[in-house]
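Ticket #4471: structure output looks truncated?

Reporter: J.K.
Steps to reproduce: submitted the chain below (491 residues) through the standard prediction queue, then opened the result file.
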Amino acid sequence: MGRLSPIVLLQASSLEASHLGYRETTLQSDELAGFALGHAGTLSAEEGLALAEAYGGAHPFIWDSREQLTRASPAFRVLMGLPADAPLTEETVLATLHPADREAALAYQEAALARGGDYELEFRIRRGDGRVRWIRSRGRVVLDATGRGCGIAGMNMDVTARKEAEEALAASEGRLRTILDTMPQIVWSTRADGHHDFYNARWYEFTGVPQGSTDGDGWNGLFHPDDQERAWNRWRESLGTGAPYEIEYRLRRHDGSYRWTLGRALPIRDRAGQIERWFGTCTDIEDLKNAEEARELVARELAHRIKNIFAVVSSLLVLSSRGRAEAREFAEDARARIESLARAHDYVRLVPGRGDDAGPTVRGLILALLEPYADGRRIRVDGTDCPIGTTAGTSLALVVHELATNAIKYGALATAKGTLSVTVDMADDALLMAWHERGGPTIEGPPVHRGFGTTLSERALRGQLGGRLETEWDPDGLTARILIPITRLAY
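Returned output as attached by the reporter:
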């Protein structure tokens, strides 16, 4: 048995098939596949024909290892780039194989012939014009009467387009992996079901774990024990709903220490809206967390000192007014305003994440300021709500306190049957607070003199909040409307 010639495509309209010991007959090309494979004892004629039809653009072939000879159609010569009159000897056909694939292809053929069974190989050919094409060959070894391999029968097809697409995809994936591995941030990806199957180099550098050891659900074991269940629950929630994943947790570094990390992931969907993959990142926020804790510590200390200042000023007012009847009323009013500011300051110091469900809001501030005046159901606060910042909260507190003080002295809260309702609404990017007093002493008209507290609160409303105050002095009670731009409430 000499060296083997490569696989040959056959599309001839007829072929004398006596070279493999078959009976002399003339076969049509569509019969050749079934006959060659069936006579070789591997497939029935029907199965062989089905195999030929299953591969679009594939052509049946028969190769005889004993004669070292191939017979082919004109289409085969076109595919191989051979002249129409060139003899199809072993040397002629062998010369078409790409030099880089020649030895490997011949070695595979020899091994297949020796072992029998299925045959499958991909290799390149180089045509006479220099063009390179990829060929995929599938078939089975043909056995002689003694059960020894004497040839190969199967199908060949040009798969150049697929191979070029695979090479382009591999190059693209290589470039993407290079980009991801050079990023300073940890990047990871999962299948649609949440199975982790990719981490960039930063993950392994940070954690120090072996490659592939955290695939699947092994990642959770690197989280701080106190954070693992919370992270799992958040991840399952995102997988179940398709909502973006975001969570802060402590991730174990290669030295055994834990560092605060921000985990985020977004789903990638197909055209039908079905999730195909998840892509996520891990960002080290340890330094940011430490800075936030330091700022919070300073803010708490400052708030404590401010509260002490409020208390000291209130005490000084009380002490200074003793023995001075003419100053007692002024001192009491000033002390009340200071205590109201202190309550407002405490309220707007609420920070989400410290056990509070949310940060300070306009309605929450109003309720905190009116709490000392509450008497049964005499005071009601309704409407929508929005967040409020420290500066805006302090300014609004002055206005609300002044209205409440006047209601206690002269308005609805000065009588047992008087009521106060406050409604908060949003309109045209502005906050509208409506203050309605009913059931108090009959109002003759607007006050003749404007007190210091009213002047102070209106200045705070205009200057610091960019808002305005409108009042209606009805006989049944005061109606006040406060309008503040939403943008000014965040500060």
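Triage note (M.O.): checked the attachment and the full token line is present. The chain is about 40% helix and 25% strand.
Status: closed, working as intended.
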